[in-house]
Amino acid sequence: MATILCLALLVIIAIFVNDGFIRPYLGDVLVVVFVYCALRSIVEIKLGLLPLFVFVFATLVEIGQYFHLVEFLGLQDNPIARIALGSTFDIADIICYAVGCAGLLVMEILANLRMGRGKPSDSNTSL
After folding, report:
1. Global pTM?
2. Cα separations (Å) of 21 from 17, 52, 127?
3. Torsion-angle region of residue 74: left (phi > 0), alpha (psi -120 to 50) or beta?
């Protein structure tokens, strides 16, 4: 459900918002949340690693923009490739990815702590 909500918000931002903060910054934070949610729904991974992997992936995509990966692959005329891979490098995007992934990591830690409180201890085997 969170993946669908993030995707809907990203589409709304892309279509209806053309400002100097929400689209360029909040959109970049939200895109790592979307990738995280999509992966989280199909991959089980240890606490903290998925936000790190998402950050590394997003950063690699941004570095690909620096080296004009879309043009190198000959996909400059493909609108889907240009949207997915991007076309303009900006260090601020990497900072936004870090902020989004840090928020995801904090949420994972808090959720893990909350779920861990209600668990019976290993020494108590009675149900």
Report:
1. 0.84
2. 10, 24, 52
3. left
